[in-house]
Amino acid sequence: MAHPYGDLPSLAVLTSLEVFEASARHLSLELAASELNVTSREITRQIKVIEDELGVPLFVRSGTDVVLTSAGKDLYTELVSILKASDVVTTIKRGGHSRMSRLTPPKRSRRSG
Fold first, then answer.
1. Which of 45, 66, 91, 95 has the largest count of CB atoms under 10 Å?
2. Where in the sequence is the domain holding 38, given as residue range(s)?
């Protein structure tokens, strides 16, 4: 049976996504490094982990400034969406209600037992 989430990235890539998100948001390796309290060299290393895993560049580099490639834009858009979902989890944990709480849960199949 195929995994419902497809081909999940390696743990190394998952831990590098915070670095990618900050770099993409700022479009600057130096600003991302400053925000995350790491060196620009570490930012570059972490981004390379993701690029190696995906087999495509995520940024076009110009010194410490960067521009997202098409793949980088796609990844950033999806990552922002995921991070918004984590905000919902935080709201629920703090006793708030999400706008999604009004949705009815999916019905269970008789086969799922």
1. 66
2. 8-80
Q: Taking a C-beta distance cutoff of 8 angstroms, is the pair 50, 108 a contact?
A: no
Q: Does 110 map to a domain?
A: no
Please check whether residue 58 is in contact with residue 13, taking contact to mean a CB–CB distance below 8 angstroms.
no
* Distance separating alpha carbons of residues 68 and 72, to the nearest angstrom: 5
Q: Residues 79, 69: contact at Cβ < 8 Å? A: no
User: Which helix H or strand E contains 66, and what residues bound it?
Assistant: strand 65-68
CATH number, domain containing residue 21: 1.10.10.10
Location of structure tokens 């980088």 = 72
d(CA 39, CA 32): 9
Structure tokens at 93: 């944990």
Contact 68, 27 (CB under 8 A): yes
Determine contact, residues 47/58, Cβ cutoff 8 Å.
yes
Q: Span 28-41, mean pLDDT?
A: 95
